[in-house]
Amino acid sequence: MDKVKVTINGMEVFVPADYTVLMAAREVNIDIPTLCYLKDINEIAACRLCVVEADIDGRPLRNLPASCVLKVENGMNVRTNTTRVREAVRTNLELILANHNRECLTCFRNGTCELQKLCDEMGIGEIPYQGQKRKVRLDNISSSIVRDSSKCILCGRCISVCKDVQGIGILDFTKRGFETEVAPAFDYSMADAPCVYCGQCIQACPVAALRERTNIDDVWDALDDPDKYVIVQTAPAVRASLGEEFGMPVGTRVTGKMVAGLRRLGFNNVFDTDFTADLTILEEGTELLGRIKNGGKLPMITSCSPGWIRYCEIFYPEFVENLSSCKSPQQMFGAIAKSYYAEKMGLDPKKMVVVSIMPCTSKKSEAARPEMEVDGIRDVDFSLTTRELGNMIKQARIDFKRLPDEDFDKVLGEYTGAGVIFGATGGVMEAALRTVADILTGEDLEDIEYQAVRGIEGVKEATLRLPIGGVETDVNVAVVHGTKNAALVLEAIKAGKRNYHFIEVMACPGGCVHGGGQSHVSSKDRLDVNPKISRANALYAEDVIMANRKSHKNPEVIKLYADYLKEPNSHLSHKLLHTHYTAKKQYVIENQKDFDDLI
């Protein structure tokens, strides 16, 4: 592409002609402040904090244009640090703060708030504009997401990510003038709107207008109760993000320190969800082969992502029968802990509390689903996000960086490399292929890295030649992440344009590594590092060093089947590890009275 010459603060730079001034400035390490900007997602010049002075061949541009939408031109001269620019940025920040809920010390985003950081950098001390504050409307009815209108700055980032990235669009600007707020249609609660609770809106939000519903106090209460036996499980993606809560670089793998930190919080046992990720592969792989051999419903679609499950139930109910009947690894773990492990250790399952640490906000709602129990005993009692675990470690005054590396407890803590890569998009598919290929060929295959299903492309496809029922068969697979991409694939199937046997779907772009419960990465930092790639690389790095890299070789999973479940898809397996899913309405009013009472 042709390049143009632009001068920024006296420095000449040659950049592609389709660049904006903001992008050009960052090529020469000049930081222009932004708040509403999210690259390729929300570029609407709403906050007016990225304004600059500019001229082209001596002809000044009118007013102070927003650099996030101002295209570069040859001969353009840009100044980002003039008195006029600084005063404009300062004034715009003060205007945003004028009606903002400024109780920063008690805010969930204190220390990670992008607005707070900009105010600190600009030296904002007093707010000259005093007036009516934004009305407090706290929607905390759902199990997963809390919406606080008093914190909202109307940047539109959550709207764009929900509509344009996820293809759902339950959030938008409502009302007018000073009363404008971001909310679901018809003033619905998040609990009754067709939200899938993926939490991508939380990841996009620069402040605390959207956050997870916290269960930290519930877990502290359980840990402090001498009559409770509290165990914890950690999802694979958490180890690739938790370190960020303590200032470590994005994608730092902290498996051993995470285990040590959890042990010091007082959990009776520290286990790994990777164990039941391996278990899921045995159950799901057996289910897939059964469907192919016996003419079952195809394509079979994975059921590990609760956001995807809810999306399917609401928007594509005709595909509910295509969903694997397997519970997610989170729920499988709880069911096994309160049956097999309880029996093995002589524990009363009614006194056990299972806590999960997840990269996901939708896991909270999954744990609360009425189907997720066995004989009246809930699989999982509380699900915490990566951020919540970070907060608990800080509350306990644990010096995380100086913790030694420790190992998971045994029985439910053994895992393989296949279980680890569940956290990256394509990981479930690759883990399944490693096991299914071995089973069908009767060999211990060495070529187990399926590069075709790796990467962050929205849709990835592959065809494998495998012996099924003694006949060489082409098995078509697809890997999808992000619900908007899932819709594209499902529409292609409905139109007869695609024919698959097995599909992995993750609701969150990038998979669990970029789940709604992972550590916040500011819009500025995202330009320097892609958390989807960095965190996924951390998981693949752990996979490589594992002694066992195939789920069916996990010795504790083998023992579980030998001593308890007998075989994959057995009667007991179906009772404990499988469930069902049902179509749901797009809008319901079950919780609306509670929400109306709140406001």
Overview of the molecule:
It is a single chain. This protein is α/β, with parallel strands linked by helices and 599 residues long. The chain has three domains: 3-93, Roll (Ubiquitin-like (UB roll)); 99-213, Alpha-Beta Plaits (2-Layer Sandwich), CATH 3.30.70; 217-577, Rossmann fold, CATH 3.40.50. It contains 19 helices and 20 strands. Strand 11 (229-234), helix 7 and strand 12 (269-272) form a beta-alpha-beta unit. Helix 8 crosses helix 10.
Give a short summary of the structure.
The protein has 599 residues and is α/β, with parallel strands linked by helices.
Q: Which terms summarize this structure?
A:
single chain, 599 residues, alpha/beta, Ubiquitin-like (UB roll), Alpha-Beta Plaits, Rossmann fold, 19 helices, 20 strands, globular
Q: Which term fits the overall shape?
A: globular
CATH architecture of the largest domain: 3-Layer(aba) Sandwich
What is the CATH topology of the largest domain? Rossmann fold
Structural class call reads: alpha/beta
Helix content range: 25-40%
Q: Give the CATH level 1 class of the largest domain.
A: Alpha Beta
**Terminus-to-terminus distance:** 54 Å
Strand content: 15-25%
Question: Order of strands across the biggest sheet?
Answer: 2-1-5-3-4
Biggest sheet details: 5 strands, mixed
Average pLDDT, rounded to a whole number, is 94
Number of domains: 3
User: How is the quaternary structure best described?
Assistant: single chain
The count of DSSP E runs of length 2 or more, i.e. the number of strands, is 20
Cα radius of gyration in angstroms = 25 Å
Poorly predicted residue ranges:
none
Number of helices: 19
